[in-house]
Amino acid sequence: MKLMNRKSQLTIFIIIGIVLLFSTALILYIKEQVSPIEETLTIVMEEVPTEAQPVQFYITDCLKQIMIEAAVIAGSQGGFIETAGIHFNSEDPTSAEGIELFPGSETKIPYWQYMDSSNTCTECTFKSKQPVLYRRMGQDSLEDQFDRFIEARMPVCLAEFYPFAEQLSVKTGEMKVKTTITKTSIFVQAEYPVTLIFKNGVQQKMSKFGTQIQVGLGKMYELAVELARQQSSNNFLGFFAINLVDIYGGPSEEKLPPIADTTLLSSEPAATWMLSEVKEKIEDRLAIYVEGLQVRGTTNYIGNLYQGDSEMARGIYHFFILPLNRTYQTDANFRYSDIWPIYLKITPSKGEYIAPDSATILNPFLSFLGIKQYKFAYDISYPVLITLRDDNGLEGEPFTFNFAMEANVRNNEPMLVDSSIITSPERTAPSLVCDPRNFNSPGAEITVSNSITKVPVENAQIYYSFGSESCFLGTTKMEDGKAVLETKMPVGIGTLIVTHEDYASTSKPFSTTGKQQQKTDILLNPSVAVKVKLFKVPIFKTYSAGFPITSKWIPGSVVEGLDYGEEAVVTFTKIKENTAEDDFFAVAKFESGSNTQEISITPGKYQITGTLVDSKLTIIPSEEVCAPDDWYDVFGAGEEKCEIIPESSFDKFPKGGVEISSFEIKPETLGVSNTMNIYLLSVPDGYTRDANGRTNLLHEDLEQMGKAEEYSSTYYELIKPRFE
User: Fold this and answer.
1) Which alpha helices (DSSP H) does 266-369 contain, by range?
2) 166 alpha-carbon distance from chain centroid
3) SS3 label, residue 186
4) Distance separating alpha carbons of residues 722 and 675, to the nearest angstrom
């Protein structure tokens, strides 16, 4: 083969280099041109005479004030201005969809990642309450929330134009707002017909108003998405928690029950613990150490805080650092507070009492050698508040963005989640599919009615969803006594989604592949006021008459209402038939003396959960527990080794509740009945208590606290809800 001339080779490499150089330059140029619509938006406003400019400025200033207010609220609540459709439970935040900043606070922060299943699940599912930023990416986007908030608040801010009452009168039409969010700004364009009538009879009309604010909401949202994705794929918060348990665990009652440990040549009795005390210790440590978490690439990142010589300690402190591949001009702070109770289950245990499995302590061979083995499995769920802060983030003033995530550990393993539940922060290009000019099917006639009364539902909004697209078709109008939308549609097989502010959203499979116009009727479930009446079913312990004496727990007679000092919360969570449905839940809270509460509910299938708590002081007396002391005791020789379990005290004593996985409330039932009886299992029950709070309960009885789910299944016919 003849070798190529060196000069020719050099020429080719130069040409390739020039091509690559220009290609890179072209790519960079194109990226600059298509880079976010960010700062290229233009606010449209009319030119008006000098005498009308004060009113124009007044309206624009109101827009800006409300935009700032909306940004602050959205930042404080994880991107939500409205949180009414999200379930919060200050007493049990790991069974909710977010956390309250403190109990009773108006600031509520949704989870951007949480376990949707119950804490005792075996096939667990996960969800995210992350809002979409842009309206093109889904329903109820943050841009949509801004639109609604501004439209609702503007009349209050304008106050009927009272500053101008002596110079002119004002006539106004309906305001329509369109918000656009970018990484560093928020733009608002408002269409608002305004007619100024001056005292001399001269009139001036204007309708276009707009303004913008500088706020880093978009860039903070991007960082929040990145942290949520890291949590989903790595569960760094769960990994952090189980490592804390491992570090502070040991075969001593002063420490946490160890994940795995062994004592050698020890004559001391095996260490035991109380679950409530262990829970408190873990909460205390989380409250201290979660604040030490850092995000590499943020402005408050310091690095490894350990300054000593121990490589082990340095490695432990390395757990405090979450590495990111980008830099953000934002602080990132993590917080756990013991006002947010964690979920904790430790195996093996008996209710409140935690002790090693007897098989590992009483093994004859190990006992003979003075060896005791400890092995505990932890199930932990706890919430974390993440606060992103920029000291100049909102019009030169500080701006914060809060969001929450739930960490979950089961059987000592951090649970990993499919990160696809976290939505990309990128703005998508406009879709041609949803352009009405491309609606080329024969179309449809869609009729919408109330599922209970069958009356027409006017102004219902209808979408057609297929694949990743969701096209708005229009709203129903009254026609010949029916609420109807006649419209052309995209061709395809998809789903009709119907929404209305007074009804639960619903959906229906629908195909537009035919050659003729199709007709379909859709029923919307209204929200109906229902009285919830509370009953208790006590579960108490009985003893056998023969020998050996055994005990079992059985239900007693149904009791209406609560005893003095008792509290109960019942939550109704609607089971969605498909992903297009909105989340819906209702909560009824009861105290002694208030046995009936009113809630609003819609027809459908519900998961019903209830908790019952005794807020009077409850003391479980100390007691002696005995077990074989040495290997030969297992065979009946020698004496038993006994130890004293100290008394346990509860300011709030959990007494069971109810867990029903699915219960259907039918439209025809709500049409004729407005009272629903709910039954809670009171377990343990049947015990005595003196004036000082001391009961005759045993520590082994505390195991009954966690059996509400089991008993709800066993005694379902007794405790299933009933309408009257």
Assistant:
1) 275-289, 311-318, 358-361, 364-368
2) 51
3) strand
4) 8
CB atoms within 10 A of CB 145: 20
Place of tokens 């842009």: 134
Least Cα distance to 55 among 229, 172, 142, 134 occurs for 172
pLDDT at 166 over 50: yes
- Rounded to whole angstroms, the Cα distance separating 604 from 145 reads 27
Encode pLDDT of 75-108 as tens digits. Answer: 999 999 998 888 898 889 999 999 999 888 899 9
- For residues 57 and 579, the model is more confident at 57
State the chain's maximal CA–CA distance in angstroms: 113
Q: Are β-strands 108-115 and 397-410 bridged in parallel, bridged antiparallel, or unpaired?
A: parallel
Measured distance CA(342)–CA(379) in Å, rounded? 10
CB 377 within 8 A of CB 412: yes
Tell me, what's the pLDDT at 369?
52
Give tens-digit pLDDT for 12-54.
Answer: 444 444 444 444 444 334 343 444 444 457 788 989 999 999 9
How high does pLDDT run on average in the chain? 85
CA atoms of 520 and 492, how far apart (whole Å): 16
Q: Is the pLDDT of residue 586 over 70?
A: yes
E strands, 467-595, are 469-475, 477-479, 482-487, 493-500, 503-511, 518-526, 528-543, 551-555, 559-560, 566-574, 585-591
What fold does the segment set 436-525 form as a domain? Immunoglobulin-like (2.60.40)
pLDDT at 18: 42
Say which residues have a Cβ less than 8 Å from residue 535's Cβ, sequence separation at least 6.
558, 559, 560, 561, 677, 678, 679, 680
Which of 180, 191, 241 minimizes the C-alpha distance to 215? 180
In which region does residue 723 sit, left (phi positive, over 0), alpha (psi from -120 to 50) or beta (all else)? beta
Structure tokens at 314: 């340095």
pLDDT tens across 529-563, in order? Answer: 999 999 999 999 988 777 777 888 999 999 999 99
Nearest to 87 by CA among 568, 583, 607: 583
Domain boundaries, the chain: 40-90+126-215, 218-254+276-342+380-413, 436-525, 528-723
Residue 148 pLDDT grade (very low, low, confident, very high; cuts 50, 70, 90):
very high
Q: Dig out the tokens for 274 from the structure.
A: 């109380």
Cβ-count burial 235-264 (b if 16+ within 10 Å, e if not):
bbbbebbbebbbeebbbeeebbbbbebebe
In the numeric block, which tokens belong to residue 424? 């990309």
- Helix (H) / strand (E) element for 62: namely helix 53-76
Higher per-residue pLDDT: 176 or 511:
176
Residue 108, token pair as written in the block: 């509520």
At position 15, the amino acid (one-letter code) is I
